[in-house]
Design brief:
The complex is a heterodimer of chains A (about 130) and B (about 300).
Chain A (H helix, E strand, L loop, with lengths): L2 H14 L3 E8 L4 E5 L6 H21 L7 E6 L2 E8 L3 E8 L4 H20 L7
Antiparallel strand pairs in A: 1-2, 1-5, 3-4, 4-5
Chain B lengths: L1 H25 L3 E8 L2 E6 L2 E6 L6 H7 L7 H21 L1 E7 L16 H16 L13 E2 L10 H9 L6 H8 L3 H13 L3 E2 L67 H5 L1 H19 L1
The chains are: A alpha+beta (about 130), B alpha+beta (about 300).
């Protein structure tokens, strides 16, 4: 797995979309892969929450025949926490503040998720 | 360098200014979406701008609740709305303006001003603020610089806004981010950030090494065994024998013990059997039929 490319994608999201404050990538079972989070956030716990949240959302889309799960968003009074499925094996967490540009977030996230998916599944040579 | 930024900013300003002014004159009512970074939406009524919303500047709600002024009177509410509108206009002008479009059927903004501002005056003020920012010794943009505290300072001797900036400057946050977190308008936060950078209290560190944390640095001992059944056993090594992996030139982190994305075997946890999706779906549907049956 190319860590530099992954870090580039994660930082790119935070820099391109106004209001994205933190991002994290984890395996579908909640095992943290990478975190670009502020010091106040505990990324392991966040990854576990995201895995649980996406699991429930996936069951919901299945039970209601809504197709393959793309993601789920929790809105709070001071921002939002979005969890996106990255293929079947991984997930991505995106945290935004109150001003997050939701349109831009959703437009930017789909291609980013695809790229992250291919970074995660690429068989990199040893030592990279 | 300031000249280059100036000319770029100027083109965006001219585009925006002519679009909003013409729309205000010809239509008067409606909304324009400004595309760009951060971009935003300009709401007009009777040829006057009554609200501007932008992801680049906190709205009146954020300004009121975060700063603890939630019990504002009508007069104060008007002042805050006007301030938020001017601040959002500044954020749009200070960023990149790519273009604009008329919003079909725009929703009425909940925080519109009763009596608005002429587009010319509003945008002129925004441009003036940007010019004032540019003549500071260390000009910054609301959404560009992400500084860190440069020196240990006694916070008690600083003004409140300076203290807040030093507390929230973590190398990840722009002036816009700090404005949202503290519930302040983005312009004063940007100006103060520029002053603190100029005074040497803050510094912009070029982040050559990405701040992204990979848990490989902290070996997740308790979690690793879960990957063993699927990963090739040879690839899983303990942190101690990292010597046989060539040191990476680009990454300062120790070599990743698991080069592949850990994969779970489907059904390994037994949750699928426990929850039995087929049955669950059937019983859920049954429950629904029962309910609608009794309702009749």
């Amino acid at each position: 797995m190319d860590h530099t490319a992954l870090a580039f994608e994660m930082r790119g999201l935070r820099e391109q979309v106004a209001g994205i404050t933190d991002t994290a990538i984890a395996a579908a079972d909640g095992l943290l892969i990478a975190a670009d989070t502020a010091s106040g956030i505990e990324p392991e716990g966040l990854a576990a929450l995201a895995a649980a949240g996406l699991g429930l959302a996936r069951r919901t889309t299945e039970a209601t025949a809504r197709g393959a799960l793309r993601g789920t968003v929790a809105y709070g009074s001071q921002g939002c926490a979005a969890f996106f499925a990255v293929g079947d094996t991984a997930l991505m967490v995106v945290l935004g503040d109150e001003g997050v540009d939701a349109d831009r977030l959703h437009r930017t996230i789909r291609p980013a998720i695809d790229r992250i998916g291919s970074i995660l599944t690429a068989k990199a040579p040893e030592g990279v | 360098m300031a000249g280059v930024r100036d000319s770029l900013g100027r083109a965006g300003y001219d585009l925006l200014s002519s679009a909003v002014t013409r729309y205000a004159r010809e239509k008067g009512d409606g909304a324009l979406r400004v595309s760009g970074t951060p971009g935003g939406v300009v709401h007009l009524r009777g040829g006057l701008v009554v609200a501007v919303a932008s992801p680049g500047a906190p709205g009146p709600g954020t300004l009121l609740t975060r700063s603890g002024r939630s019990g504002a009177g009508a007069a104060e509410l008007r002042v805050v709305r006007m301030m938020a509108m001017q601040d959002a206009a500044f954020a749009i002008v200070a960023g990149r303006v790519d273009g604009w479009e008329v919003l079909e059927d725009p929703a009425d903004p909940p925080d519109a001003l009763g009596v608005g501002e002429t587009p010319g005056r509003l945008l002129h003020q925004a441009a003036r603020k940007l010019a004032a920012l540019d003549v500071l010794p260390h000009p910054v943009r609301p959404d560009r610089e992400r500084p860190l505290p440069a020196v240990e300072v006694d916070l008690a001797q600083l003004a409140l806004l300076q203290r807040e900036l030093l507390v929230h400057a973590d190398g990840r946050s722009t002036a816009r981010d700090i404005a949202f977190r503290t519930g302040r308008a983005v312009y004063p936060v940007t100006v103060e950030m520029a002053r603190l950078l100029g005074g040497g209290y803050l510094e912009c560190v070029e982040t050559a090494a990405p701040p992204v944390r990979m848990p490989a640095r902290v070996p997740p001992e308790s979690l690793r065994p879960r990957t063993r059944p699927v990963a090739e056993p040879a690839a899983v090594s303990t942190p101690g024998d990292a010597g046989d992996v060539p040191p990476s030139a680009s990454s300062p982190s120790p070599p990743d013990p698991a080069p592949e994305l850990p994969r779970r075997t489907p059904g390994a946890s037994g949750i699928t059997e426990t929850l039995a999706p087929q049955k669950a779906v059937a019983s859920w549907k049954g429950f629904f039929r029962l309910r609608s049956g009794t309702a009749k």
